């Protein structure tokens, strides 16, 4: 197997890195006297998104050409997300192209695909996946398996409920608490429970438009400003079933999407970890103490060397998962752990400035913490990977012990088998 990137893949990385270098850097409002893209209304820079979509075809990298896409695959999209993670540029790329587009491709009818995917490919339509409560990682089968889809809301209440409206459509009721880019997406893919109490199942529904009846969206003040989140409330909201099969295996489709999403998030985390390490190396080269650069001290060199090894190991795992998305959850665990470690060490090695609001070090630490809260934690990602890979298969039952025959004592006494002389002496003494 040739593990080297093709010329086209290398060009995607180079072009995106150059484009992000010219964009507005992420940061809290007021750092440079202007509101950054993360603090703007939609949570990202619409001009940058339009430029990336129109000139590079970024949202349609993994979509088929007949729907206006580029016709590439998961590897190319993972490389793109690695660059967005490196720059921490807030874009609706993961929510639209990493979550919503694969579900539309897998479950949608040809009419729905033809109507929706070209808009996603050219950047004119952004999308978000709404899962009840905070069950995104569970619905994507990253941290647990639930083939029955009970996370969508069981019984007659809770979660998001769907019922037919009697005219070929559906009505939705409920709330999704953590929806990535949910406040600005032009299309919502809502996972809802339907079928009543006895025949309940989870299905996906399409909610179009910013001003759908009964739809209310509120952007949260999130820990990570570069990954906007929203609360989506549905009150008698009209919706359309995704696909034409009411018995479709939606949990299986979400699990397949989750494996690919894990690979994409792993690549994004590697990009962020590499950027945090690069910034730290540059800082310790320039920062002087006791008349010499801080980076010349042996203890600092050792810490940076350990971080470098972590990042390279995580990158190998992310690239392998991009080639084989079945390992997405395990790669995501390693990459999130590497990002958390590197971001924490970056704050320490930056000294006093690493704790300030004006420096970018805290942004990488917040991304690490936020991603673990949304898609982890790391130990559950690994436990799920071990479970799906049958790493801890149950041991075979132990064989029954063979019967042991004990010869009767020569004196004809009824001494129990295995009793020693001391026991026989106590019996003789009547104890």
Tags for this entry?
single chain; 431 residues; alpha+beta; seven-stranded mixed beta sheet; two-stranded antiparallel sheet; 12 helices; 9 strands
Question: Could you explain the architecture of this structure?
Answer:
The chain is of the alpha+beta class and 431 residues long. Helix content is 44%, strand content 13%. It contains 12 helices and 9 strands. The chain has helices spanning 7-22, 46-56, 74-87, 93-107, 110-121, 136-139, 250-286, 298-323, 328-349, 361-375, 378-388, 421-428; strands spanning 127-130, 160-164, 170-180, 187-194, 201-208, 215-219, 229-241, 288-289, 292-293. Strands 1, 2, 3, 4, 5, 6 and 7 form a 7-stranded mixed sheet that branches. The protein has a two-stranded antiparallel ribbon with strand order 8-9. The protein starts with 6 loop residues before the first helix and ends with a helix.
SSE arrangement:
Layout: H1 7-22, H2 46-56, H3 74-87, H4 93-107, H5 110-121, E1 127-130, H6 136-139, E2 160-164, E3 170-180, E4 187-194, E5 201-208, E6 215-219, E7 229-241, H7 250-286, E8 288-289, E9 292-293, H8 298-323, H9 328-349, H10 361-375, H11 378-388, H12 421-428
Parallel strand pairs: 1-4
Antiparallel strand pairs: 2-3, 3-7, 4-5, 5-7, 6-7, 8-9
Helix pairs in contact: 1-3, 3-7, 4-5, 4-7, 7-8, 7-9, 7-10, 8-9, 9-10, 9-11
Short summary:
44% of the residues lie in helices and 13% in strands. The protein is an alpha+beta fold and 431 residues long. Strands 1, 2, 3, 4, 5, 6 and 7 form a 7-stranded mixed β-sheet that branches.
